[in-house]
Amino acid sequence: MWWVYVLRCRDGSFYTGATNHLRRRVESHQAGQGARYTRSRRPVRLWWVSGPYGHSQALRLESRIKRLSHSEKMALPGRTASEGGMG
Fold first, then answer.
1. How far apart are CA 9 and CA 59, in angstroms?
2. Which residue of 37, 63, 68, 86 lies most exposed, with the fewest beta carbons within 10 A?
């Protein structure tokens, strides 16, 4: 099972990713061991998550979300600020 997620960074920017272990991945971003982009923008918080998907479907959705504008990411439907126990 794969999840697509959007993090909100300290500077207000967004980071989009896909993972098969949501909680561990968010924790790695928080610890500064995730993507290079989020290392200098901590703390981050989970803004939106969707899934579960198969691997290829998750990567396609991740790619589509990465192309959204900042305001479109702000308005993602059903966005969440917590993991909701997923992962």
1. 21
2. 63
Show the beta-strand stretches assigned E in 41-81: 45-53
Residue among 21, 61, 26, 71 nearest 46 (CA): 26
What pTM does this model have? 0.86
Location of structure tokens 């899934």 = 51
User: Residue written as tokens 């967004």?
Assistant: 14
Residues 6+ apart with CB under 8 A from 44: 7, 8, 9, 10, 15, 26, 29, 30, 38
Which residues are bridge partners to 76 per DSSP?
none
Structure tokens at 68: 């959204």
Map tokens 């993972």 to a residue: 19
Burial 42-53 (b: 16+ CB within 10 A, else e): bebbbbbbbbeb
pLDDT tens digits along 19-72: 999 999 999 999 999 999 999 999 999 999 999 999 999 999 999 999 999 999
